[in-house]
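Human:
Class, as today's exercise, you are to examine the entry below, and be ready to discuss the fold:
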Amino acid sequence: MHLIVALLGAIATAVWILHRLAEMGISLAGLNPFLWKRRRDWSNRYNSNPIFQLESPLETMGLMMVAVAKADGEMSGSEREHLLRAFVDVFELNDKDAVGLLNSASHMYGRGDEIRDKLDAVLAPSKNAFSATQRQQIRPMLEAVAAADGESSASQRALIEQIGAAYAEAPKSTKGW
C-alpha cells in the first residue's frame, strides 16, 4: 500500500512541476526535434529577405527590370514610364497592378547589394518557372529598359549579361506570363 501512495505522490508531483513550468513558458514540446526544425525553418523563411523567395516569373522579371533601371543610380522618370508601359503591355496588368508591381520591386531592390552579390540565389526559386517564350523575352525587355534614357551604361550591360547567362539553359515550364 505504501508503494502505491508513493507512486501517486510522485505522479502528482511530476504533473504539478510540468504545470508550473508551462505557466512560466517552458514546455517539453520544445524538446521535440521535429517541432524545433519546423519552427526554425519557418523562422528562417519569415525573417529572410523576400527577394530570395520569389517564385513567380512576373515578380522576378519585375525585380530584374527595376534592377537594370537602377544599376547606374536612381531610376529616371523615363525609365519609370517605360517600366510601367512594359508592365501594362507585356505583362498585361492594369494600371493599378503595374504601379503596385513597380513599387514592390523598387522596395525589394533596396540598395541592390543582394542582387549584385547573390544574383544566382535571387533567381534560383523562379528559374524553372520561366517558359521558353518568357526566356526569349528576358534580354530584349531588359535592353529596352536600359535604353530608355538613351545609351545603356556599362553596369546595366553587365547586369543584363549576368541575367541572360542565368536563363540560358532550357526551361522546364511552358506557360505564359
Notes: Residues 70 and 112 are 8 Å apart (CA to CA). The chain has a mean pLDDT of 88.
